[in-house]
């Protein structure tokens, strides 16, 4: 072997991070951990929407305040304890889930318009068959920027349409997305 490894902070055999034994007073920061994403069941989404509906008077300008999201998170934690494959329903995750549900609501609203060319209804979804599959593909792929969020509603309904609709103020949709 040529050379000496005395004073070296790297092992010749490892490729990972090593600790300099001469610098024990400056330990490395703890490894970064990623929080598991909250997984929401349809039942939990419904419970969140019901909770928000029962506190609709506190929405003020049509949006819930941070204190309400904290209360919603506490409600979810109390009624739906953590499971092994799930993360805590935090105030932030409750707010993001509500935003995602509103986005789905507006997507389905667009599908219900006659201009979409589909006969969407709350019970049967868009009812895409072989006869109109090419039109659906065009709608979600070619018109991707305008209708990219429609894909899940091809043959699946949006069970929370009426619940989300009750939570939206009647004075327009632009401020909610």
TrEMBL record:
Limits of the Myb/SANT-like DNA-binding domain: 39-110
Top-level division of the source organism's lineage: Eukaryota
Matches recorded under InterPro entries: Myb_DNA-bind_4
Name of this protein: Myb/SANT-like DNA-binding domain-containing protein
Organism whose genome encodes this protein: Pisolithus tinctorius Marx 270
């Amino acid at each position: 072997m040529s050379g000496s490894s005395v004073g070296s902070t790297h092992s010749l055999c490892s490729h990972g991070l090593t600790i300099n034994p001469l610098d024990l007073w400056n330990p490395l920061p703890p490894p970064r951990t990623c929080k598991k994403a909250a997984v929401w069941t349809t039942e939990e989404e419904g419970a969140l929407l019901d909770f928000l509906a029962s506190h609709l008077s506190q929405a003020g300008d049509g949006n819930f305040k941070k204190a309400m999201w904290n209360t919603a998170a506490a409600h979810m934690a109390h009624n739906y304890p953590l499971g092994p494959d799930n993360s805590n329903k935090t105030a932030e995750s409750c707010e993001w889930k509500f935003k995602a549900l509103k986005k789905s609501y507006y997507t389905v609203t667009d599908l219900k318009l006659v201009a979409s060319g589909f006969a969407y209804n709350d019970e049967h979804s868009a009812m895409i068959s072989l006869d109109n599959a090419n039109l659906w593909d065009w709608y979600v792929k070619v018109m991707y920027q305008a209708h990219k969020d429609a894909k899940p509603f091809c043959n699946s309904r949006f069970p929370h349409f009426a619940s989300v609709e009750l939570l939206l103020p009647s004075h327009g949709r632009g401020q909610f997305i």
